[in-house]
Amino acid sequence: MDQLGGDIVQDLLKYNKETWCRAYFKEHSKCNVVENNMCEIFNSWILTVRYKSIITMLEEIKIKCMERMNSMREFSEKWVGDISPMAVEILGENAQRAVKCEVKFNGETWYEIRDGPYKLVVDFRMCSCTCRSWQLKGIPRAHAITTMHYKNYEIELYVDHWYRKDTCLKAYNRFIQPLTSMNLWPKTTLPAIEPSVITAMPGRPKKKRRKAADEPQKKFGKGTRIGRQMRCCLCKTLGHNKKGCPSAVSINVLCAHY
Questions:
Q1: Rounded Cα gap, residues 53 and 96, in angstroms
Q2: Closest C-alpha to 104, from 118, 89, 90, 120
Q3: Model confidence pLDDT, tens digit, residues 130-164
Q4: E-assigned strand segments in the chain
């Protein structure tokens, strides 16, 4: 990352390493994904209803969640095997890579795997590999699959329970109950909650989120210099352009001298 230039490494080191570097990830969650776009995905999912009134927005979000939970429940019940289709696809890709690995068995539970120029150790007693991919994701990688082929083990038995049908059905075994329309709701005797006074602010209301100071402000067209470093087209170094290039200044001085 340091070879990419700029202050990328120094900016990353300001954040907690456990949140962006796989080497520091915990192994209990069985997830090795670095990026997390759940908030952005949810906002795009409710894009058509997020500008409506509060009760109407909540009602439509409830309907979307109710339908999604039902569709995910039906999808899980249609699985051919006990493992999720995503896990089966990853197992197939890892099995193709396992063909290129070579295994050496020590006679107990340890296996030495040669993968190109690298050698790794697989331990079936702890269900672990020194590459940490099996521990982080819960799906055996090519190194572990090589040992399973060597001992004629069934691969799907070593997939973590997070990818099994009963776990997925357990996540969606609760139901959101339907509701009647607002005109059929019971009337309350408590005083009505009045909305706060809205003070009109100058200018048009903004609908887009506020970007960080070091984030480029435009995606298309001519971009801004915020969050970017200039690179000289003459000496190819960062920090200045051709107008302030020391080499260009020295050339101009020589030309004026002669």
A1: 53
A2: 120
A3: 988 899 999 999 999 999 999 888 998 899 999 99
A4: 102-105, 110-115, 118-123, 128-129
- What are the pLDDT digits (tens) for 38-74? 888 888 888 888 888 888 999 999 999 999 999 999 9
pTM: 0.65
Other C-beta atoms lying within 10 Å of the C-beta of residue 83: 20
Distance in angstroms (rounded) separating the CA atoms of residues 213 and 219: 15
Tokens for 114, please give them: 């040669």
Distance CA 258, CA 15 (A): 54
> Among 136, 125, 171, 159, which Cα is nearest to 28's?
136
Secondary structure letter of residue 172 according to DSSP:
T
- Strand-pair partners of 104: 112
113 within 8 A of 101, measured Cβ to Cβ: yes
CA distances from 120 to 56, 146, 171, 192 (A): 56, 12, 35, 68
Q: How many CB atoms lie within 10 A of CB 77?
A: 11
Rounded Cα distance between 209 and 8, Å, is 24
The Cα–Cα gap between 110 and 150 comes to 12
Phi-psi region of 188 (alpha: psi -120 to 50; beta: other; left: phi over 0): beta
